[in-house]
Amino acid sequence: MALQQITLHVNGEDHNLTVRSADTLLFVLREKLGLTGSKPGCLNGDCGACTVNVDGWPMKSCLMLAIEAVGKQVTTIEGLHNTPIQQAFVEEFAFQCGYCTPGFIMNCHSLIEQHPDADGQTIKEWLESNICRCTSYIEIEKAVKSVLRKD
Amino acid sequence: MLPFDFDYYRPETLQEAVELYQKQAGQGKQVIFFSGGTELITLGRIDLAYVDAVIDIKGIAECKIIKSEGSQLLLGSALSLTQIEEANPFPLLTKVASEVADHTARGKITLGGNICAQIFYREAVLPFLLADSQLMIVGPEGIKTVQIHEIFQGQLQLKRGEMLVQTATDRRFIEAPFYAVKRRQQWDTGYPLITLAALKIGQEIRVAISGLCPFPFRSAELEAHLNRWGQAAESRIAGALSVLPKPILDDVEGSAEYRIFVLRNLLYDALSVLEGSRV
Ligand SMILES: Cc1cc2nc3c(=O)[nH]c(=O)nc-3n(C[C@H](O)[C@H](O)[C@H](O)COP(=O)(O)OP(=O)(O)OC[C@H]3O[C@@H](n4cnc5c(N)ncnc54)[C@H](O)[C@@H]3O)c2cc1C
Ligand code: FES
Ligand code: FES
């Protein structure tokens, strides 16, 4: 039981895997599925670099066991293709080193999905879950606002 | 990734959960109920927690309920704080919960997990202390419903193998005027210092506090001072501050003196907001 055979539904595909119950979703995405877009940062739920989307909501994949994701739809940054929020990040230069970017984009993507008409307060509340070491916050805010406006 | 292995179970009924716990514990295993699981995942990684088996309660329908029944609101212990905020059935709880951790983490942290956590903030319990809520507990002896004040003294006094299933809160407290604020040491997102939640029921003001002492509390003595209506706010607050439980936290997040200074201001704010709504 410490090892389990599971099926994970990631980016629209089913993956049959053997995982330890103790493996986090972040570890399995990166080390077993080779999806290295989700970044390890603090591994403690604080930084948001590992954020993915689970059943439409943002999730810090370092705070979730892979086994808890069974039966859920997991989307990582590799599962987004030319979405408006990705384009907005490019247009607004909303990154410098880029390490925090996949996490931010996954969080913004979830916000747009859940609250397409989010107001400033909601945007702030959601985005406070992610930290950018290079302080691209203003550009990130602009990027998300531009997409919400288009909606 | 945690540095030790454990068995993972996801029961679908309360009975199954209780039996699994007893069976594992009976074999001498270290077993825990796992709700959001953030405590084990974060503390286990740095060797501050260890288990042989976890029983994930998120598959149990009773633990996921949001329902009005008669005059009561039932909330399941495995609801995430985000689910509670989005549904917003208890505005004071929404406000208090929205100050825990950050938005994404609240999609994982659960109501019961926060109430039962080791960390001393456990803010999510404050609204239930103010509302004299009932707690449904299940354990080897079956299901029981207990008044929160009988079982929450600093922390939930659960016996081995018992778990919190639901809270039940009377509608008149849910509709009562309230005030809640969390003061942080730095910025909007820094570490929490003090959370104060207050509610006015009839002419009575109730107050519950987290982050002042190493446990969340509500104190009848403190409230008696605050409710001395004939007196000026200053002397009522001074009286309240003279009967605080001990010890007062005194650490890098804030000295005891500073915490009391912050509390004094929060009490002023609570009184002015709630007395403003006096009818
Ligand atoms: C980024 C981050 C920020 C945080 N900020 C805060 C904060 O601001 N305030 C705060 O209080 N905490 C904070 N924490 C700590 C976190 O809140 C606690 O770890 C969390 O509340 C636990 O919730 P959970 O659902 O993950 O509980 P779990 O980890 O599942 O459980 C916590 C404990 O309670 C027990 N338990 C869980 N559910 C039940 C139940 N139904 N019946 C009986 N026992 C049960 C478990 O066995 C375990 O011992 C933070 C954590 C992180 C990762
Ligand atoms: S790595 Fe997950 S929040 Fe920092
Ligand atoms: S762009 Fe470097 S951490 Fe955000």
UniProtKB/TrEMBL annotation, chain B:
Gene3D superfamilies: 3.30.465.10, CO dehydrogenase flavoprotein, C-terminal domain (3.30.390.50), Uridine Diphospho-n-acetylenolpyruvylglucosamine Reductase, domain 2 (3.30.43.10). SUPFAM superfamilies: CO dehydrogenase flavoprotein C-terminal domain-like, FAD-binding/transporter-associated domain-like. Keywords: FAD, Flavoprotein, Oxidoreductase. Residues 1-212 form the FAD-binding PCMH-type domain. Transmembrane segments: none annotated. Pfam families: FAD_binding_5. Coiled coil: none annotated. InterPro entries: CO_DH_flav_C, CO_DH_flav_C_dom_sf, Diverse_Substr_Oxidored, FAD-bd_PCMH, FAD-bd_PCMH-like_sf, FAD-bd_PCMH_sub1, FAD-bd_PCMH_sub2, Mopterin_DH_FAD-bd. This is FAD binding domain-containing protein.
